[in-house]
Amino acid sequence: MTKCPVCSQTFQKGDYQALAKHLAQASEKNDPFHVAWLQDYVPMPNYASPDFLNHLRDFFKISDGSLKSWIATKFTRKFYSEKPHPFIEAMQKPKKSIFMGYGVEYYFFLRQKIKALAYVIAKTDKDDVQKLEAKIITPNIVYDMKDGNSEIVLLFKMYEGLGITRDSVLASMPLPPTIYSLKVWNSIAESDHWLETMAALNTMDLFYCSQLKDFGAKLPYFSPTVLDNEWIPDSVKHYLKFITDSPNEFSMESLDLIEKYAKELNLIEEVQSSFMRSLDAMDRHLQARLTRSKQYESK
Ligand SMILES: [Zn+2]
Description:
By secondary structure, the protein is mainly α. 64% of the residues lie in helices and 1% in strands. The chain contains 14 helices and 2 strands; from the N terminus they run E-E-H-H-H-H-H-H-H-H-H-H-H-H-H-H. Strands 1-2 form a two-stranded antiparallel ribbon. Helix 6 runs parallel beside helix 10 and helix 6 runs antiparallel to helix 14. It is globular. The termini are far apart. The protein binds zinc ion. Zinc ion (ZN) binds next to helix 1.
């Protein structure tokens, strides 16, 4: 099925004409979500123009047959281009409040990711997929606070270093944009194909992927000077080092599996659509990290 990358309305496989009509109609009605998507990814002065269909086809076209590189390239353009996402920009010269806002909002994303990947394990019978997802989620569910080998433990230790109590985070609510995004990810995990859940959640690990520069990334997740900065607590450095260290980084392995099964199960268009919805959800969640940082600044 071809799926709208904004509202996930379905159309017959390969029917980009129907999708273009749907998007043009939504633009005509000034639907803010569809309009924002169109302006971001297929900017045109007039969506009633016959050229729109060609531009839309080009956007979803997988050149050289690599879905993996289509995903990585779209991800890179969204967050790591010359005009990077404001959160990535903030991570190049971070203030204490950035790490605080980041750590607190991120906790809710991590919990949602674990839950969504558990859905993948439950819904598939593919051993290689189950094994990868289990490798990612187990250390974040079964952990010992003395052990520094899981992301969640290092995140909790980062809170201590920043003067935030873990209990206060666990008792807090995410900000509205994060709540919105968590609902998107949860709905994909509950209702869509397991491969779409992988396309939505596993791909978000691309943030930490060192190979992203091969797809055009103009900057890293955080400036390497952060690790030498004396005022930054060690617990923050340990956390950042852990998530970007290759043994803990599964994004390329995930992309290989997504590509393999999208071809095998004939789900390329579904994967593209769910990945696009997740990009938007992540954009909102990153904005929430910045808003939360500002709240800490003003305290
Ligand atoms: Zn739609």
